[in-house]
Amino acid sequence: MLHDRVLVRQDGGEGERLSSSGIVIPATASVGRRLSWATAVGIGPNVRSIVVGDRVLFDPDERAEVELHGRDYVLLRERDVHAVAARRIDSDGTGLYL
Fold first, then answer.
1. 86 and 97 in contact (C-beta within 8 Å)?
2. Do 64 and 77 touch, CB atoms closer than 8 A?
3. Which backbone phi and psi does 80 adopt, to 5 degrees?
4. pLDDT the model gives residue 9
5. What is the DSSP string of 48-67?
6. 23 contact partners, CB below 8 Å, separation of at least 6
7. pTM of the model
8. Dihedral Cα 63, 37, 15, 20, nearest 10 deg
9. For a Cys staple, 97 with which of 13, 26, 84, 88, CB 3.0–4.6 Å?
10. pLDDT tens track for 26-74
11. What pLDDT does residue 85 have?
12. What angle (nearest 5°) sits at the alpha carbon of residue 91, between those of residues 37 and 10?
């Protein structure tokens, strides 16, 4: 990894979702701008607030996809990450760093 890049693996698929009330939402449904969660699997030497294993929130429209060893990953700049969820950041609150 170079500079401020973060390599992430998306948590969920791009397919159907299930609402909290049990309604199936198809993948083709338009939901506007929706952010996605992913897990950091690699970081560059200049990344300051993310470590491998953190969950990060990012905009899926602003991403570069890459395939490594048959698995799909997303390559982001650290500045494109909207939030980091990690126990090490805030043990008393939500665990989110915004």
1. yes
2. no
3. -85, -5
4. 92
5. -S--TT-EEEE-TTS-EEEE
6. none
7. 0.70
8. -150
9. 84
10. 766 656 667 888 999 999 999 998 999 999 999 887 778 888 888 889 9
11. 86
12. 10
CA distance 81 to 37: 10
Closest CA to 75 of 60, 87, 88, 90: 60
Rounded CA-CA distance 49/98 in Å is 10
- Residue 40, token pair as written in the block: 């950091």
| Phi/psi-derived region of residue 3, left when phi > 0, alpha when psi is between -120 and 50, beta in every other case | left
**What's the burial of 74, exposed, middle or buried (CB within 10 Å: 0-12/13-18/19+)?**
buried
Mean pLDDT of 75-88: 87
In this structure, are residues 75 and 63 in contact, taking their beta carbons and an 8 Å threshold?
yes
CA dist list (Å): 83 to 21, 26, 48, 55, 97: 26, 26, 13, 8, 6
Which residue shows structure tokens 């799909």? 72
